[in-house]
Amino acid sequence: MFRGYSTAHCSLELPDYHPFPKYKYAGVAQALQGEMEVLEAPAIGWETLALVHERAYLEKLRREGLSRQEAHRVGLPWTRSLLTRALHAAGGTLAATRDALRWGLGMNLAGGTHHAYRDRAEGYCLFNDVAVAVAALRAEGWGGRVLVADLDAHQGNGTAVIFQDNPSVFTLSVHAERNYPLKKEQSDLDVGLPDATGDAEYLAALEPALEQAFASRPELVFFNAGVDVLAGDRFGRLGLSLEGLAERDRRVLERVRRAGVPLVIVMGGGYNRDPGTTVAAHAQTYRLALERLAGSL
């Protein structure tokens, strides 16, 4: 049985009115019980984080935390629980990456914190978990080509900057053009879509983007599978249906299957006005991965 890593065991202190969907981590883990082994995501080590993030930034988080201004930029109030949860989310992505290299598929039921830069936190993101996982592999001597297929509704700005001078990593971001972040960075391939883009238009834009991205001949793929592309999302600005989302995922999974390469899935964003839709959409992505890939691995 394949396994996924969850941060459901990590508390997060937020005001009741805060829009961050902390409910979804436990909800998705519960929805997938019996379909995969769900394990507690381990905390990542500070030395591993230092492979990507500046030591001064990490030391500040350990000793002082974020200032009020910095917390405002992140969009989350500073608490020790925020730091603890971020450590476990990044640890879940690294554990899932090791699973992918061993078994062909690794799943973190958290992660996808693509707005974090080397030296700062932004947009709900303290650590860039995918970048840290890649750096950890490099430190261990793995030198393969990587594709980061970021299909969250927001551009993966931190990821783009961290990898922009790295020819061994191809970064793809398909996102709502007028969405956060206001200032876009440069990925290897950026596809910015108009507000309210629906299923047909989205899939028509996705297909050539995947063609170009997989032409980089990756040996490991990270899929940021944000479901904030759905209609009704608080922050996504796009207009996909659940079936359109499923077709998005099928197309990524089929490319991975045809390429015969390991896949790591990280959760990404999802802030639907209906909490049940957010949970169902994320669970759908992991179920499709098990259905489409597990039998071929």
UniProtKB/TrEMBL annotation:
Q: Which residues form the Histone deacetylase domain?
A: 18-280
Please give the CDD domains that the UniProt record associates with this protein: HDAC_classIV
Keyword Hydrolase among record annotations: yes
Stored Pfam families: Hist_deacetyl (PF00850)
Output one GO BP term.
Answer: epigenetic regulation of gene expression
- Keywords on this record? Hydrolase
A Gene Ontology molecular-function term?
histone deacetylase activity
Query: What Enzyme Commission number(s) apply to this enzyme?
Result: 3.5.1.-
Q: Which family does it belong to?
A: Belongs to the histone deacetylase family.
* Protein name listed in UniProt: Histone deacetylase-like amidohydrolase
To which species is this protein native? Calidithermus terrae
